[in-house]
Write a structure and sequence with these properties.
The protein has 248 residues and is α/β, with parallel strands linked by helices. It folds into two domains: 123 residues, Periplasmic binding protein-like II (D-Maltodextrin-Binding Protein, domain 2, 3-Layer(aba) Sandwich), CATH 3.40.190.10; 98 residues, 3-Layer(aba) Sandwich (D-Maltodextrin-Binding Protein, domain 2), CATH 3.40.190.10. The chain contains eight helices and ten strands. The longest helix has 18 residues.
Length: 248
Amino acid sequence: MRIWLICHLLLLCWASTARADLSKLEYLTEEYPPYNFSDPQGQPTGLAVDLLQMIWQHSGVPPQPVRILPWARGYYLLTQKPNVVLFSTARTQAREDLFKWVCPIGYSEYILLGRKAQNITLTAFDQMSQYKISAVRSDAAEQLLLNNGMDDNNIIPANRLSQGLKMLLSGRADLLATSKLAGYDAIRELKLNSDDFNVAMVLSAEQLCYAFSRQVPDSEITLFQQGLTRALASEEFRKLQAKYLPVR
């Protein structure tokens, strides 16, 4: 009797996963190299995009469209629509219960970036109130500022990271809240000297994930996580890491 019950439960779990359909989801991302960005032809690429294609392959799903949007727009759609996947999304404590999660894509360190000429160094969160800080709207870095007591009147919102960096350069902002990887990538993209900048403070280190609308069925989350787990264990993923995250 017990064996029959176990087999019955396993069959139900299999049937539930089999009904999951990852092709009904809307896949959104932003410009956040090297995880997700536009190639010279304007097509989505990057470690998280290539990893997503591996997940589809392991899950028996044909390739799906991926749209690149400004982060604030993608984040808004994730909160409003029932079938959205947004990546690469930092899994912060403030966001934990807002979405469903499949992890990890990678990890990101969030910092306050400054200009060396300004010589700003912070040792505590309550020191942030002395400065004007730029951050991308709805980005994890902006949320970390607010969660740690930053007055929103002292936060200068930017639509894109490059815009926030230009605010820092012009003196409109004293500091830029960003992930370390993306911040220094933006510096290179603008052909600036990275030696002219410094990390004024480390805000946090967060896991990067695929975030799903709360209404997405658990069966689809399970199928997606199974695909990710298999992809992360593959030799192909190690090649992706070497391609997009080379050891410097």
